[in-house]
Write a structure and sequence with these properties.
The complex is a heterodimer of chains A (613) and B (338). Chain A contains 21 helices and 23 strands. Chain A is α/β, with parallel strands linked by helices. Chain A has three domains: 219 residues, 3-Layer(aba) Sandwich (Pyruvate-ferredoxin Oxidoreductase, domain 3); 187 residues, Thiamin diphosphate (ThDP)-binding fold, Pyr/PP domains (Rossmann fold, 3-Layer(aba) Sandwich), CATH 3.40.50; 108 residues, Rossmann fold, CATH 3.40.50.920. Chain B has a domain of 210 residues: Rossmann fold, CATH 3.40.50.970. Classes of the chains: A alpha/beta (613), B alpha/beta (338). At the A-B interface, helix 1, strand 9, helix 10, helix 12 and helix 13 of A face strand 1, strand 2, helix 3, helix 5 and helix 11 of B. Strand 17 of chain A pairs parallel with strand 2 of chain B. Chain B: One of its GO terms (biological process) is small molecule metabolic process.
Chain lengths: 613, 338
């Protein structure tokens, strides 16, 4: 190896791949991340793409990005700012300049830096770096288009196919820089295009050309070493939140010994849950792509009535459409899991961007007194556990459960130590056993859960419905009965608290500032709190996964800190909820609604400011 | 043994007092469905009756089977979920013209398109009864109600047209007070694999009394109703001397014995014809020029959604290496950290 190569050793690196939405940047980023995980780095990813499938080429609006942070330590966020940006065109540089670490490295396709593309990206001069004040960044111009074309000149491919392989050149080059194993990517390409040997050959050729280019040009490209992380031993895989959610539900069905039914309508960013379950006919999954969101949940309610683990998945606007039917499952007291992968709102809002603004809708967005259990996952991989527990609560307590994830968790991925089914908790659905004594709305004394009997079970025939009912499920307009039933349904949800683990504090158990968060912001909050502690600040984190009911020890935890700040990607919905449920405390707020996750940097700034006040 | 197990109509009645208005057509339909259920010989535990909202949708409370009174318009979707969860069940959807064709229109057509094995009994009284008298999607143009004091300015749906438009395989029409015909039709609907839609012309005593009288009046019945039977000529009339012929793509009423017309010239009913052309013409027949078609109009065999769903799962289960969640979690790219 040439001595001229600059070798930089780092604990963690964030790379952002970026190009036109048709440039294959998501695939490039995913392959790079998988290869990083395989060699033992911990990592976290963040796809950031526009809602248009193919926005106008070369424009800033059409830029699709994929950021991955990997390191030798525990990595809980995809990184606020990228050390390295791979940009396939000038628009990609422009779109991502705000997300670059000062003095970072920019690898770009110099062939695309043409006057026409400057115009498309709305640069006013032909000096894009100067215009973006990126002069002092380390820039590596690479003629990616030319070199890809050159590599494929003997393949007889049309121009479009050649250009489509450019991402492989970039992947090869970056893989050389970060010493990623090529065999993994090669295997992937061979598998993906196994029916098209010519495409396999072309992609492999370009991939290797990228790698070789790095090696040959080492005088100008630095090489980074990021050692493997020391993580718990076991078998690992990369997983994103949507897949983890789908698989957690499958795990619950297996543990509960029930068939699983998913009624759903495609909606960004939740569609992958439906796709992942549709792929699992081998595990007997029944997926039903409904005609609309309402049918998605209504078929699910039917399946719950008929004895399946019944699940529906959606995102904010879909949750709105499902409200009335969700109320039916509250009234009928049927077990059901609703997965809400939150996105930017209101209305169609920012479909591909992340936000936490459906919290109050999940808690309260129905007619009548209509409480449901609300859970929130906090990392891509723990979507598995919370999906599992959502199903466990639904089946054991005969309640609908909303599981909140978000676009950041759903699309983001991280390495995950694969659990064994034998180690997962048992799930015991409340299936009725005694036909002689069965009453549809007779309850367990402790949990208030009713028993579940479904069509096909002999001797348990009964009727239920959306009208207020008595013990037998028959319609009742009796004023006293309605009051009683409303109270019972609320109390039943409250008593789920005995399935909720205590709220844990990350960091010291008491201190100056308690950071409070919920759901998908965990990685950023945890990183920020860790950083504050490394600067000797008395800051701790209490992160909520159980929203309704909340853990039993919230009051006790909150009372040990001088200040509390509630951080969330909305305008203060959880803070409002806490003010209602735990009114004895003063809650500071830190809110952001930009369709983006928090940055560790801005969180630390806010915490510093609160500590100084 | 079989005789001991046989169910009677009492086995299908619930202890609940039936609270439809006295004289409402719903009473007779309840009776017909219970009779059909007895005749079908399916085990009592395997019946599931799902309804939406409206007068007709109180139906499940008057049955002793499994029943679910759901929300407005969604019975078709809930019933779809029930059938998918347990394809062995005999699932009935009880709905009305408002429930199925207005708020639930989307679910109605998609249920039919998917051909899930559900029996849809559509009570058509051309009015909103439970909300006390507003026009419905089947009310005729110009119909005066509380919400159309000057008459409606919109055309109604013809339910059978929607069924055909959604590629329906089974459509039948009956009249509430003809219990014998209704029972036969309900049995045929239940035996048919796939979505069966039965439109029952139902009289609302309170808000739309007599809306179907011209068709259902016993005195005019033979003249105004064409009782369709598979394989038999389409003959009607007090003297059974009127029939239908197809002429230049149109149906025409002819009289046997006049203008050289014989019985052999009359169209023979074929419920199994996949081409819905004649079925469509029969569905569209209306007074005063034509009798109204009754009976099973269309019953075309096809694979049902639930059959295909089960078959697909079995097929994939057989060939896949993934047999458990543990297998799934360990599939694809994994690595070991020592």
């Amino acid at each position: 190896m040439s001595k001229e190569t600059k070798v930089i050793e780092l604990e963690e690196v964030a790379i952002r791949f970026s190009g036109d939405s048709g440039d294959g940047m998501q695939l490039t980023g995913t392959l790079f991340s998988d290869a990083s995980a395989l060699i033992g780095n911990d990592l976290s990813t963040f796809p950031d793409y526009p809602s248009e499938i193919r926005a106008p080429q070369g424009t800033v609006g059409g830029v699709s990005g994929f950021q991955v942070q990997f390191g030798t330590r525990r990595v809980t966020t995809p990184g606020d700012y990228a050390h390295v940006l791979v940009a396939m065109n000038p628009a990609a540089v422009k779109a991502n300049a705000p997300f670059m670490r000062p003095g970072g490295t920019i690898i770009y396709d110099q062939d695309s830096f043409t006057e026409k593309n400057f115009q498309k990206a709305k640069f006013t001069t032909d000096q894009p770096f100067e215009e973006l004040k990126l002069d002092d960044y380390f820039k590596i111009p690479v003629p990616i288009t030319t070199l890809t074309r050159e590599a494929l000149k003997d393949f007889g491919l049309d121009n479009k196919s050649i250009l489509r392989s450019k991402n492989m050149f970039a992947l090869g080059l970056v893989s050389w820089m970060f010493n990623r194993p090529m065999d993994y990517m090669e295997r992937f390409i061979q598998n993906k295009f196994k029916k098209k040997p010519a495409v396999v050959e072309a992609n492999l050729k370009v991939l290797r050309s990228g790698w070789n280019y790095g090696m040959n040009m080492q005088h100008m490209t630095p090489r980074y070493i990021v050692h493997a992380a020391s993580i718990e031993h076991g078998v690992y895989r990369n997983i994103n939140g949507n897949l983890a959610t789908a698989w957690g539900l499958l795990a619950a069905a297996e543990k509960a010994n029930l068939e699983i039914f998913l009624g759903s309508y495609p909606i960004t960013p939740a569609t992958e849950v439906l796709q992942a379950l549709a792929a699992r006919k081998d595990l007997g999954v029944k997926t039903f792509q409904a005609e609309d969101e309402i049918a998605g949940i209504s078929t699910t309610i039917g399946a719950a009535f008929a004895g399946d683990l019944a699940v529906t998945s959606t995102s904010g606007p879909g949750l709105a459409l499902k409200s009335e039917a969700l109320g039916l499952s509250v009234m009928a007291e049927l077990p059901l899991v609703l997965v809400n992968v939150q996105r930017g709102g209101p209305s169609t809002g920012l479909p591909t961007k992340t936000e936490q603004s459906d919290l109050l809708q999940a808690l309260y967005g129905r007619n009548g007194e209509s409480p449901v259990v609300v859970l929130a996952a906090s990392t891509p991989s723990d979507c598995f556990n919370y999906a599992f527990h959502a199903a466990k609560i639904a089946l054991e307590r005969m309640v609908p459960v909303i599981l909140m994830t978000d676009g950041f968790l759903g699309n983001g991925s991280e390495p995950w130590k694969i659990p064994k089914m034998a180690d997962m908790p048992e799930i015991t659905p409340r299936i009725a056993k005694n036909a002689e004594t069965y009453k549809p709305y007779a309850r367990d004394e402790e949990t208030l859960a009713r028993e579940w009997a479904f069509p096909g079970m002999d001797g348990f025939q009964h009727r239920i419905g959306g009208l207020e009912k008595d013990l037998m499920g028959n319609v009742s307009h009796d004023p006293e009965n309605h009051q009683k039933m409303v109270e019972i349904r609320a109390e039943k949800v409250r008593r789920v608290v005995d399935m909720v683990p205590e709220l844990e504090v990350c960091g010291e158990q008491e201190g100056d500032l308690l950071v409070v968060g919920w759901g998908g912001t965990f990685g950023h909050l945890e990183s920020a709190v860790r950083e504050m502690r490394s600067l000797d600040h008395k800051v701790s984190l209490a992160h909520f996964n159980y929203i309704n009911p909340m853990p039993a020890n919230v009051h006790e935890v909150f009372s040990r800190f001088k200040k509390i700040v509630v951080c969330e990607l909305n305008m203060g919905q959880f803070a409002a909820y806490l003010r209602d449920k735990e009114p004895d405390f003063k809650y500071e707020q830190f809110n952001k609604v930009k369709g983006l996750p928090f940055t560790v940097h801005e969180l630390c700034e806010k915490f510093e400011q609160l500590l100084e006040e | 043994m079989a005789e001991e197990l046989a169910l009677t109509i009492k086995d299908f009645k619930s202890e609940n007092e039936v609270r439809w208005c006295p004289g409402c057509g719903d009473h007779a339909i309840l009776n017909s469905i219970q009779k059909a259920m007895v005749a079908l010989g399916i085990q009592h535990k395997d019946y599931a009756v799902i309804s939406g909202i409206g007068c007709s949708s109180r139906f499940p409370y008057y049955m002793s089977t499994y029943g679910f009174h759901t929300i407005h318009g969604r019975a078709a979707a809930v019933a779809s979920g029930v059938k998918c969860a347990n394809p062995n069940l005999c699932v009935w959807e009880i709905t009305g013209d408002g429930d199925a064709l207005a708020i639930g229109g989307n679910h109605f057509i998609h249920l039919i398109r998917r051909n899930i094995d559900i029996n849809v009994i559509l009570f058509n009284n051309k009015i909103y009864g439970l909300t006390k008298g507003q026009y419905s999607p089947t009310s005729d143009r110009g119909f005066v109600t509380k919400t159309s004091p000057y008459g409606t300015v919109e055309d109604p749906f013809v339910p059978g047209q929607l069924v055909l438009g959604a590629r329906g395989k089974f459509f039948a029409r009956s009249v509430d007070n003809n219990i014998k015909m209704s029972q036969e039709i309900f049995e045929a609907a239940a035996r048919h694999k796939g979505t069966s839609v039965v439109e029952v012309l139902q009289n609302c005593m309170i808000y739309n009394n007599g809306i179907h009288a011209a068709i259902t009046d016993p005195k005019m019945k033979k003249e105004h109703q064409l009782m369709l039977k598979h394989g038999e000529p389409m003959i009607f009339g007090d003297n059974e001397d009127k029939g239908l012929v197809l002429e230049c793509g149109h149906l025409k009423v002819v009289k046997i014995g006049e203008d050289g017309v014989t019985r052999d010239d009359i169209l023979v009913h074929d419920v199994t014809e996949p081409n819905g052309f004649v079925h469509q013409l029969l569905i569209n027949m209306a007074l005063p020029d034509f009798p109204v078609a009754m009976g099973v109009i269309r019953a075309v065999e096809a694979t049902s959604y639930d059959e295909a769903m089960v078959a697909q799962i079995e097929e994939v289960k057989e060939t896949s290496k993934i047999k458990s969640v543990d297998d799934l979690l360990m599939s694809g790219n994994t690595w070991v950290v020592e």
